[in-house]
Amino acid sequence: MHDLIRRIDDATPPDRDRAVDALRALAILGVVLGHWLVTALVADSGTVHGASPLQFMHQLAPVSWLFQTLAVFFLVGGQVAATSYSSARARGTTYGQWLGARMARLSRPVAAVLVVWTAAAGAMLASGVGLETVHTLFKLVLSPLWFLLVFTALTAATPLVARLHPLWPLTVVMYVDLFRFGLDGPAWLGWINVAAGWLVPYCLGAAWARGGPTGRTTGWALLLGGTAATAALVLWAGYPASMVGVPGAKISNLNPPTLAAVTFGLAQCGAALLLLGPLRRVLKRPAAWAAVALANLSAMTIFLWHQTAMIAVTAVGLLAGGALPGLHTVPDGPGWVVARLAWLPVFAAALLVCWAAFRTYEQRRPAQRGGTRVVREGRPAPATAERHV
């Protein structure tokens, strides 16, 4: 392990901003833990259906504030994509070549998930599993893919949006919500915010790549301003306090994104900018940087398979011991929360198995000279790293 840590540290360019990778890792970790904590699979009368503790315990809404970290991912995505495209142009790489290389990193892991779950769904139906159960599980696995579709579209549009000021998409979100909620406009207008809402942090990231203001003053302004705006929208404008969707709720802040979700994302982006300095200091330590680098090697695998890991544990538990607290029971009280926390290490172990089985679809890269290979734009890692993990 000491040798692996040293190799990763030696292979990292001196000008690599390690804090960017740390923010991406934290964003992925937030999504995974958030899903594991607010998603329940309830076994009832031979079927399995989805539920959420936020339906029954509204006081848990602050959990969604901690683990709904998508804005940070789009912030980092905009920064990395804009930097990568600028570097590609300087090298004479065409737009098609640049985009093809970036899309390949997304398509292989997604294809693996789709193939495995299409086969699994067919096998479950053939073995007599109810259609409702199969639909619940399949939807749970595929629902995170909406994020990748949006991220792919914004990545492809990077040359067009890289210099777009974040206030423009923010204004679009404001007017869409005004028409939807203030003037009783059609609900389909909200889907405009799927692009406009996530363009806000993405454009912030692109501005960061251009050398825009990312200091502590900007960070505090975004954090305090976004927090104040979100609080005002929740307290006086009728927006939900939860920053994730709650089954049965009249309004979802995330599906599609609302103005409250966007202002909350701005607060998160401000917090991320304030963390850059401390993260850079911590990541000077080779061991800390190695952990972040290895997590980023498998970011897509972790994101795509974490729901499968939870489903696998749920299925094994149901076959082995019936309805277990925190795993198959209705999430309607503190006891469920305590039990679910105890299941998190088991979910993590199942995810480790999925990672071992499917990580090659993400980490397949052409070898480079000198015993290293490029993991992502500007992030080299040792070719032997995967054998040690």
Explained architecture:
The structure is a single chain. The chain is 70% helix and 5% strand. Strand 3 (372-376) and strand 4 form a beta hairpin. The chain has a two-stranded antiparallel ribbon. By secondary structure, the protein is mainly α. It has one domain (2-388). Helix 2 runs antiparallel to helix 5 and helix 15 (299-321) packs across helix 16. The chain is globular, with a radius of gyration of 21 Å.
Total beta strand runs? 4
Strand order of the largest sheet: 1-2
Described by the principal axes of the CA atoms, the overall outline is: globular
Return the average pLDDT rounded to an integer: 89
- From the structure provided, what is the oligomeric state, counting identical versus distinct chains? single chain
How much beta, percentage-wise?
under 5%
Major sheet = 2 strands, antiparallel
Helix content: 55-70%
Total helices: the number is: 18
Taken in chain order, the helices and strands follow as HHEEHHHHHHHHHHHHHHHEEH
